[in-house]
Amino acid sequence: MAKKKATKKKVAKKSTKKVTKKKPAKKATKKKVAKKATKKKVAKKATKKKVAKKATKKKAAKKATKKKVAKKATKKKVAKKAKKVVKKAKKAASKVAKKAVKKVSTAQGIDKKALFNSILELIKNTSTVIPDDVQKVILEGLAREEKNTTAEYAMNIIKNNIDIAKKKIQPLCQDTGTIIFYVDVPKGFVQSDFTKICHKAVVKATEMGYLRQNSVDSLTGENKGMNIGPGHPSIHFHEHNKKTIEMKLMLKGGGCENVGAQYAMPYNALGAGRDLEGVRKVILDAVQKAQGKGCGPGVLGVCIGGDRGAGYTHSKEQLFRKLDDTNEVEALAELEKDIVETANKLGIGPMGFGGKTTLLGCKIGTLNRLPASYYVSISYMCWAYRRQGVALKGDGSINKWLY
Questions:
Q1: Listing from the earlier edge strand, what are the strands of the sheet with 359-367?
Q2: Could you tell me the pLDDT band of residue 56, with boundaries at 50, 70 and 90?
Q3: Which of 35, 142, 334, 388, by CA, is between 20 and 30 Å from 341?
Q4: What is the enclosing helix (H) or strand (E) of 308?
C-alpha cells in the first residue's frame, strides 16, 4: 500500500512537472505566435504602406502623365494656333504682296490693270480721233479755200478721213508715227513699272490695229511687228507737285519728221541774225522748203536756244500746246501769229497743191543757250495732228481727257 502511494506521488509529481513544463512551453508558443502575429501585422502594415506608397506614386505618375499630356495638348493647341496665325499672316502677306505687285507705286496705289487699260485707251483715241482744237482749225481752213479748187478738194479729203477714222475707230494715217509719251508724276512714282505696262499696252494696241507696225531696227531693217525696241516708244518722265498722274501722247509721223529743220544762227544764206527777225526768216524758210512733203497743212513747234538735242526736244514739246492758246511772252505770241498769217500767203496750200491753208498753227518756246551757240529748231507736224492726254484717278483709271 505504501509503495502504491509512493508510486502515485511520483506519478503525480511527474505529471505536475509535465504540466508545469507544458505551461511555460505553451506561454512561449503563445509569445512566438503573438510575435509572429505582430510581425505579420507589421508586415501587413508595411505592405499596406508600400501598396499605399505605390498607389500614391502611381497617382502622382498619373497626375504627372496627365500634366505632361495636358502640356503636350496645350503645346499642340498653341502650335496649331501659332500655325493658324502664321498661315493667316502668310495669307495676309501674300494678299499684300499681290496688291503690291499690282501697284505701280505704293505711294499712289495704282492698279496695273487699270493703268494698262488707260494707256491702251489713250493710244486708241490718239491714233483715231483728232482733238477738237485741231479739227476746228481744219474746218476753218476748209471754209477759207475757194470752191472747186484742188485745195478745197484736198481739205475735204482730210475732213472725210477724220470722220471715217473716228466712226470706224481706225488710224487717221497709215503711218501711226513715233510713239512719244510725256508723263507727269508725283514724288516716289516707280517709273520702271510704268514703262513695262506702257510697253505691254503698245504691243496690244499694235495687235488691235490702233498702231501700225512701224518700228524698224536701224542696222538690220528687221521689223518685229510690235513697235518695241530701243527708243520705241519714247517715254519722258517729269516730276510735279501734284498727287495725280498726267499722261500725254503724241504720234508723230515720219513724213512730217523729215521736213523738220535746225538753223545755227546767224544764218548768212538768208541774212538772218541772232534776233527775232532772224528767227522769223529761218522759220518761214523751213515752211517754204517743206512745201507739201510734210502732209500739210501742218503745225510748227519751234525752240529758240538750247543745244542741238535739247532744242529739238523742246520744239516737239511745243506741239502739246492747244492751237487756240496764247503765248505768255507777248513778243512770241505776236511772232506765232505772224508766222501763220505769212505762211498762208505763200500759196503752198494743203498737200502743196496751192491754196490759202499752209499752216494750221505755230508754237514757239525758248531755252537758255551758250554765248557761242544760237540754234533755232523746228519740228513740223502734219495735218494728222495726233496728240492727246489724260489725267488719272488714284487707281490708274482715266479721270478726264486733256484735249
A1: 261-264, 375-381, 298-305, 359-367
A2: low
A3: 388
A4: helix 308-317
| pLDDT value at residue 319 | 98
Count of Cβ atoms closer than 10 Å to residue 133 Cβ: 16
Q: How far apart are CA 382 and CA 386, in angstroms?
A: 9
* Average predicted confidence (pLDDT) for the chain: 86
Residue 223 Rama label (left phi>0; alpha psi -120 to 50; beta): beta
Strand partners, 400: 391
Using omega within 30 degrees of 0 as the cis cutoff, is the peptide bond preceding 371 cis? no
- Predicted local distance difference test score (pLDDT) of residue 292: 84
At 64, is the pLDDT very low, low, confident or very high (cuts 50, 70, 90)? low
Q: Where are the domains of the chain?
A: 1-76, 105-129+172-253+385-403, 260-383
Nearest to 315 by CA among 239, 263, 357: 263
CB-facing half-sphere around the CA of 37: CA atoms within 13 A:
6
Question: Measured in whole angstroms, how far is the alpha carbon of residue 371 from the centre of its chain?
Answer: 43
Count Cβ atoms below 10 Å from residue 363 Cβ, excluding itself: 24
With beta carbons less than 8 A apart as the criterion, state whether 299 and 385 touch: yes
pTM: 0.74
**CA dihedral (34, 35, 36, 40) positive or negative:** positive
Instruction: Report the half-sphere exposure of 388 (CA within 13 A, side-chain side).
Output: 23
Before 266, cis peptide (omega within 30)? yes
Residues ≥6 apart with Cβ < 8 Å to 152: 142, 145, 146, 355
Angle made by CA atoms 294, 327, 312, in degrees to the nearest 5: 45
Distances (CA, A) of 171 to 10, 115, 175, 199: 161, 22, 8, 19
Give dist(CA 247, CA 181) in Å, integer: 7
Based on DSSP, count helices (H) and strands (E) in the chain, helices before strands.
9, 9
Residue pair 252/316 in contact (Cβ under 8 Å)? The answer is yes
Residue 105: pLDDT above 50? no
CA distance 272 to 263: 10
